[in-house]
Design goal:
It is a single chain. This protein has 237 residues and is of the alpha+beta class. The protein has a single domain, classed as Porin, CATH 2.40.160. Strands 1, 2, 3, 4, 5, 6, 7, 8, 9, 10, 11 and 12 form a 12-stranded antiparallel sheet that branches. A hairpin with a 3-residue loop joins strand 8 and strand 9. The N terminus is likely disordered.
Length: 237
């Protein structure tokens, strides 16, 4: 259902400027980078493992972040330019988010690698500004997004001698979340369209799957986004 709604909104966003004489850009965007998560759920997990990694009451173990790859597949976006320098972009994406951590003993030895991950649909509505520079223009985007968890939330523990993965099934009451997306980059006319490269961040500021996890968690995805779009209507840029 959410996919059909997103496609309908893209069609509407592309049709309106053509009828009104505004400029529209339609294209595709994908990104990849690193994701992080934080909040009481992971803090409680780190506290529990700190006790397991302690050799005495006064020397608890610790936890540290590990690299967790995140990706985002856009498929399609639509942008309406109201002025030469600013427009609004609808950019539904499929995103893989989560976090990875390492639990260390008080001697600094890793004894558990744990984390959490989930796939979601993000539907951002972004204000996008442009500033001419050289053969192209500098871009800046910012705006809110709605997130919908698509499937289970996975919790993983990997010890030296064993590995466990728990798939926390979907709960309708905690499958949605909200966040802010933004970034800066550079776009360049290329062939019949415009190619763009942008540093992006997706920050989730409401709890994710709190009912399933039994506590609150939030996430931050960072990455490099690559896009290509074709401009329709108005004046070519």
């Amino acid at each position: 259902m959410s996919r059909h709604v997103a496609l309908l909104l893209i069609f509407f966003a592309a049709a309106v400027p053509l009828a009104s004489g505004l400029t529209c850009e339609v294209g595709v965007i994908d990104s990849g980078g690193l994701a992080f998560a934080y909040g009481p759920y992971l803090d409680a997990k780190a506290g529990s493992l700190a006790e397991w990694g302690a050799s005495s009451f006064s020397t608890p173990g610790t936890s540290q972040d590990a690299l967790f790859p995140e990706w985002s597949l856009g498929g399609a976006y639509a942008e309406i330019d109201f002025l030469e320098w600013i427009g609004v972009r609808l950019e539904p994406r499929i995103a893989f988010l989560g976090a990875a951590r390492q639990a260390l003993t008080d001697a600094g030895v890793v004894f558990d690698q744990y984390g959490i991950c989930f796939t979601s649909v993000l539907i951002p509505v972004l204000a996008r500004g442009r500033l001419p520079l050289g053969p192209g223009f500098v871009t800046a985007t910012a705006g809110p997004f709605l997130g919908i968890i698509a499937g289970a939330v996975y919790v993983v523990d990997r010890y030296a001698a064993s590995s466990t993965t728990a798939a926390l099934a979907s709960v309708s009451s905690d499958s949605t979340f909200f966040g802010l997306s933004g970034g800066m980059g550079y776009a360049l006319p290329l062939g019949p369209g415009v190619a763009g490269l942008e540093l992006r961040a997706d920050w989730v500021f409401t709890p994710i799957a709190a009912a399933r996890l039994g506590n609150e968690m939030r996430a931050l995805g960072t990455g490099l986004a690559v896009s290509y779009g074709v401009r329709l209507g108005g004046k070519p840029k």
